[in-house]
Each structure stands twice: as structure tokens, then as C-alpha cells.
Amino acid sequence: MRIVIAEDSVLLRDGLSRLLEAEGHQVTGYPTADELVAALGTGTAGDDLPDVVVTDVRMPPSHTDEGLRAAVHLRSLHRRLPILVLSQYVEQRYAAELFAGDVRGLGYVLKDRVADVEEFLDALQRVATGGTVIDPEVVAQILARTRSTGLETLTPREREVLGLMAEGRSNTAIAERLVVGLPAVEKHVTSILTKLGLPPDADDHRRVLAVLRWLEHGPTAAQPGPVVTPPGGVGTGRPTNGARA
User: Fold this and answer.
1) Would you identify the CATH topology of the domain 2-145?
2) Which of 17, 20, 76, 126 is the most exposed place for a label (fewest CB within 10 A)?
């Protein structure tokens, strides 16, 4: 694959580049969001586009949301450009903005996920092929902050199922993970969608919309902080390489 990385940290950018090149990928790196947009903005199309873009959220000059805004802008120009966003923290309001439109080929992963090479490569491949990946730790953080959006009506098992849905797992993969029958999972998914006001239909992306409810309705005034996984929290398990959406 042809991969573009936008990351201001030289160590992380070079480390990712070496990792991906060792896997046989062609990598181009940029230290700022402006350079990323200049390289892939207006006038770039078709075969000139990379297979996937990996970008940080906080980049120069203000180190706030330049990377995210660049991602949103590029998606407005190239609707199907796969983008995987890396963040040090759970940037709740930024994640909501990123997933406001078409969610195919989008991912939001915490940077410490990169420490697990296989899981990072798996997430990258899934985004590049049109999948949606939301880090389960992001989901757990947002779930803990959410109030009065219908999520409080979910049972502990339904929350666990929703956390696995956020990882991009199919009903079959969820059943295997929880060691339950497929009909039981289907019943939980139907209940989740109904409680959140998202009745199930032929649109598979209703599943993603259920997860985005967490992103959309959490308190936007919350200050971002280091990720802390609640002891025994649901939806925090890391995806296994054997399960695919």
C-alpha cells in the first residue's frame, strides 16, 4: 500500500515509517498538517491518492486540532480517502467531528495502540479497505462520561456488545468473543439499536451510528486527559487478529 503519515514527532513518524516499510508498504511522511493538505489537496485525484492517510490530531503551529481539521478537509475533497487518526488522548469533540459524515474508511486509534504492532497493522488494513475502527478505550472513556442519551438504559451485556461493535466486529465475531450463540447477539444488537432510537434495517452503518451516539452526546466541555481504563470496564478489550467485521 501507499501510505502517507502526518506526524510532527520525528521519532514517531520515522518509527512508523520504518515499521510500515518493513511490511512492504511505500511511505511518505509530513511534519505538519499544512504540508499534508498541500500534498493531497485540490488537484490530487485518482491514482495520485494514497491508499490510506495516518495523521495525528494535535499538530503545529497551535498543537490543538490541525491534524483533525486537515483530515476533515481532505475527506471533503476526496470522499473515499481512507484516514486513520492517531491521538494521545480521548479527543471527544474531535472524534465526533471526524465521524459526522460517511464513516467508511475512517479510524480513531490511541497512540499507545501502536505499541502492539499486529493490532496497529490490523486497524490500518481495515481502514484502508473501507472499514471503520474506533479504539475500544475511546469508547470506554466516552461511555463513562455520557448522560441521558439512551445509553444509560443499556444493560451491562448490551454495553459489552456495543463496545465490541465499536471495534468493527460482526455479530458472528461478537458471538465467538462472548462465547454465546448468534441469536443471542442479534437480540442484543436489536435491543441496543431500539433503545438508542436507531431501529435496525438493511443499513449496516446503523451499528456505527450507535457508537457515534457516544461520541456525539458526551460533554464537549470536558477537558482531554490521559486515557485511564476503568477496572473491569466494558468495551475495553483489544481486538483479536482472528476476528474481522
Assistant:
1) Rossmann fold (3.40.50)
2) 76
What would the grid cell of residue 114 be?
A: 501502536
pLDDT at 16: 93
pTM for this model (two decimals): 0.63
Task: For residue 241, give the C-alpha cell.
Answer: 487478529
* Other beta carbons within 10 Å of 24: 7
Would you give the distance in Å from CA 203 to the centre of its chain?
Answer: 19
Domain boundaries, the chain: 2-145, 151-217
Would you list the DSSP string of the chain? Answer: -EEEEE-S-HHHHHHHHHHHHHTT-EEEEESSHHHHHHHHSTT--GGGS-SEEEEESS-TTTTSSHHHHHHHHHHHHSTT--EEEEESS--HHHHHHHTTS--TTEEEEEGGGGGSHHHHHHHHHHHHTT-EEE-HHHHHHHHHH--SSSGGGS-HHHHHHHHHHHTT--HHHHHHHHT--HHHHHHHHHHHHHHTT----S-TTHHHHHHHHHHHHS-TTPPP----PPTT-TT-SPPPTT---
Domain 151-217 belongs to what topology? Arc Repressor Mutant, subunit A (1.10.10)
Residue 172 pLDDT > 80, yes or no? yes
- Which candidate, 134, 73, 142, places its Cα nearest to that of 108? 134
* pLDDT tens track for 200-238: 554 556 777 777 765 555 323 233 333 322 223 323 333
